[in-house]
Amino acid sequence: MNLAKIFKRAATEECIIFIDEFDSLGKVRDYNQDHGEMKRVVNTILQLFDYLPQESIIISATNQINIVDPALLRRFDVRIHLDIPNKSQIKELINKTLKSGLFTYDEKKLPFIIGKCLGLSYYAIQKALITTIKRSILDNIELNSNKIKINTTLWIELIDKEKQNFSLKK
Predict the structure, then answer these.
(1) Disulfide check for 132: which of 9, 33, 72, 155 has CB 3.0–4.6 Å away?
(2) For residue 149, what are the β-bridge partners?
(3) 3-state helix, strand, coil in the chain (%, to 5)
(4) In the chain, what is the greatest distance between 2 CA atoms, to the nearest angstrom?
(5) How far apart are the first and last CA of the chain?
(6) How confident is the model at residue 30 (pLDDT cuts 50, 70, 90)?
(7) What are the tens digits of pLDDT across the range 96-118?
């Protein structure tokens, strides 16, 4: 198990371990679809946590804390909940992402786009926008313009795709 190797090395020196999508490793042990393997994984992680030196730090991230085993959650001293952004935070994220001024878009569609983004994480919103920027650059590569026009139709499609992906994870 690669996780055991990481923790073995962490036991020999001060370190910070970051585990993303922690729910995929630490599912509740009585989870309906569990066939024993998840119980072994969670028990192993519990043991690895217990033998980690006090100087080391474990940080984990999940969008589904409700399926993480309570025994694992008790091993963490601090929990930080990050809320989904509201309309003004979404607008600020878009503005910061586009702050270079190299891109233009149909600003009349911005309120609609912001509304479509409601319920998505900062990451999902920015991912959709950056993917739109990349595709818009490729579509406009031959134009000799100082500014690239962002394809808002594509942007909306990618936001919808992110929403579909988000609802599948729940």
Answers:
(1) 155
(2) 104
(3) 55, 10, 40
(4) 60
(5) 28
(6) low
(7) 999 988 899 999 999 999 999 99
